[in-house]
Amino acid sequence: MKAVVLKDITNSDDIVLENIEKPKAQKGWPLVKILGFGMNHSELVLRVNEIRADYIKKPIVPGIECVGVIEESLDEEFKAGDKVCSMMGGMGRNFNGSYEEYAILPISKLFHIHSDLDMKYLAAIPETFFTAWGSLFECLKLEKKDILLVRGATSALGYASMQIAKALGCQVIGTTHKQEKMHFITDLGCKAILDPEGKIAGKVYANKVLELIGPKTLRDSLRCCYHGGIVCNTGILGGEYFLNGFDPIKEIPNGVYLTGFFSNYPTQEVVDSLFKFINEYNLKPFIGASYKFSDIKAAIKAQEKGVDGKIVVTM
Ligand SMILES: NC(=O)c1ccc[n+]([C@@H]2O[C@H](COP(=O)([O-])OP(=O)(O)OC[C@H]3O[C@@H](n4cnc5c(N)ncnc54)[C@H](OP(=O)(O)O)[C@@H]3O)[C@@H](O)[C@H]2O)c1
Fold first, then answer.
1. Distances from the Cα of 56 to the Cαs of 17, 21, 61, 92, in angstroms?
2. What pLDDT shows up at residue 126?
3. Dist. CA 288–CA 221, nearest whole Å
């Protein structure tokens, strides 16, 4: 079968599809025929940097999410033909991920899905919408009456978060560092703020803040939040991973709560709630580009260049 196999830091020009042996189902690890997957910023980080970390299995097939059908299973929870999705839990880092035709995936990270959406849209949902959902509801306790500020709104996760919050009935503000992208935010019915410097404190206020740029703007985001509000750091688009010299006493305003979301722990219950909401509100992920798996190199190059919306790959 065909797969992208990374051994070390790899330029997008050097991406090739290799022939590797098709895996066999094992107890606790059904064999999944991959039908499609979304591409994620973290896969770019893996390819250009993180792959050298000790905790990454090498060689590794990248890809932290997929939609597929069970091809073979030794576990009663899944039977051949079941439509499933999978994400995270070490996928594409500790064990081979979705940039391949078949994958064996742990039952703890395999979820049944019920949706009639076209594969192009379905493939864009698991990781992005699960992360948006967890950030908004588990961490930010989002309610209809809230004003939500999404920083780094012109990422796939930003668009998904704005779509969910708008469907719920919230007032939503999104920031972008590019003037020409403001309309993507207003098109979703949200207010767009141009923020090329990462400095909007004192000008923009919300009681729930979703920080997707990360430590680079987190201090500023904390100062955008009303007393009693919550800031959730979920992204690292700004390329800074740590808050050096952070003084929590002085830098977290009194009565503002700081939290973070890590998408490593999806559950069937949350996946069911998420798809119920998507079906009820007829949400369609904002697709930036779609590619066939045979064109994976072009998909990876597009990701590097930057695409507005989620990049999906179908088999
Ligand atoms: N905590 C978790 O478990 C979790 C899970 C999933 C994703 N994430 C993180 O969430 C973030 C979004 O992920 P994604 O997969 O949705 O990303 P993505 O769709 O690949 O988004 C990347 C795009 O974001 C845009 N962007 C907007 N503001 C930016 C800024 N200030 N600096 C740099 N780029 C900016 C860039 O386009 P323009 O420059 O053209 O605007 C870039 O093309 C990433 O940092 C990712 O690592 C975290």
1. 20, 21, 11, 9
2. 97
3. 27
Asked if 30 and 78 touch (Cβ cutoff 8 Å), the reply is yes
Closest Cα to atom 8, ligand 1: which residue?
A: 235
CATH of the domain at 102: 3.90.180.10
What pLDDT does residue 224 have? 98
What pLDDT is recorded for position 238?
94
Peptide bond into 59 cis (omega under 30): yes
Query: Can you give the pLDDT at residue 255?
Result: 98
For the chain, residues with pLDDT lower than 70 are: none
Q: Which ligand 1 atom is the nearest neighbour of the CA of 233? A: 1
pLDDT at position 277: 97
Residue having the nearest C-alpha atom to atom 28 of ligand 1: 152
CATH code of the domain in which 225 resides: 3.40.50.720
Task: Report pLDDT for 139.
Answer: 98
Q: Which of 182, 183, 193, 212 to mutate to test the pocket of ligand 1 (most atoms within 8 A of CB)?
A: 212
My answer on whether 231 and 153 are in the same domain is yes
Question: CB of 102 within 8 A of CB of 25?
Answer: no
Which pLDDT score, from 0 to 100, does residue 158 have?
97
Number of domains making up the chain: 2
Residue 94 to residues 65, 89, 199, 231: CA-CA distances in angstroms? 13, 8, 37, 30
pLDDT of residue 183: 97
Distance 135 CA to ligand 1 centre (A): 14
Give residue 48 CA to ligand 1 midpoint distance, Å.
Answer: 15
- The per-residue pLDDT for 7 is 98
| Domain boundaries, position 134 | 128-260
